[in-house]
Amino acid sequence: MQSIQDILQDKEKFKKEVLSKHKYVTKEFQDFGYRVALKLGALNQVSMYIRMAKEKPRVHMEQALSFAIDYPNAKDKGRIFMWKLKELEKERNETLKTRNKYLRIILLDIDEVLILNERFSKRYSREFNVDIEMLRPFFEEAFNDCLTGKKDLKKVLKKYLKEWRWQGTADELVKYWIEEDLKYNQEMIDKISGLNKDIYKVYICTNQEKYRTEYLAEALKTKVKPVKVFSSCELKVKKKDPKFFKKVLKEVIVEPDQVYYIDNDDNNLNAAKKVGINIYKYPDQSINQLIKDAGNKP
């Protein structure tokens, strides 16, 4: 049986180990997350609390922390903290849903809907005289890990450079890939731009790896001015999975029937439909029909 002195020494040793692992805490949210874990006696989960400090509303974390610390005879303050935080988030969501009941959320796909550029594989095949079938294995296998944020596109592409007859580096190939002149669907942009911003909130939903996500998000700032770009690489799931749209709904905080989504892919549309979102297949159903239906909703 350990003595009290041994237990205290073990705790101090553990604390030093945690601090050494997190010695590069340079941002305020990292410091806050660490301090929350320390006060809850949960340094073994400090990474989780740092992540929460980055993603969760600060006021909720502070309220939950105060509640957990003051809770009488609490053996597991971390568990009390998590319970209270969930309750606060639930209350907030219900309040916001009531406040947002008159909002209409429009979700726009990018490729072949909002932007009408030729697919990269077709463009590359044509410009470099490479059989498109040579590119197919990459897009059917390795590229999927890039789309869900598991792998870095530049690192993955290195093994394909010779086979694809690319004369430059992986960085240069990515630059060629993403930094093309964008051909916007101007009719759609004009319709979106004319909407009442107090009622209609526009978001982008796209399957992209991180480099093209960053490039397109910046390019669309002035053209479409979306509230946010929801990308598969950041949500860690592709649009063909209903989990993608569940994550979207969690962030926009409205009922599913207040959300209108236009895409040209049946798999993506079916996934959105499963969570109750109104769907429109482009180009068979136009942005005009979407806006009309959204405007007619009581």
From TrEMBL:
GO terms for molecular function: hydrolase activity. Gene3D superfamilies: HAD superfamily/HAD-like. Keywords: Hydrolase. The keyword Hydrolase applies. Pfam families: Hydrolase. SUPFAM superfamilies: HAD-like. CDD domains: HAD_like. This is HAD-superfamily hydrolase, subfamily IA, variant 3.
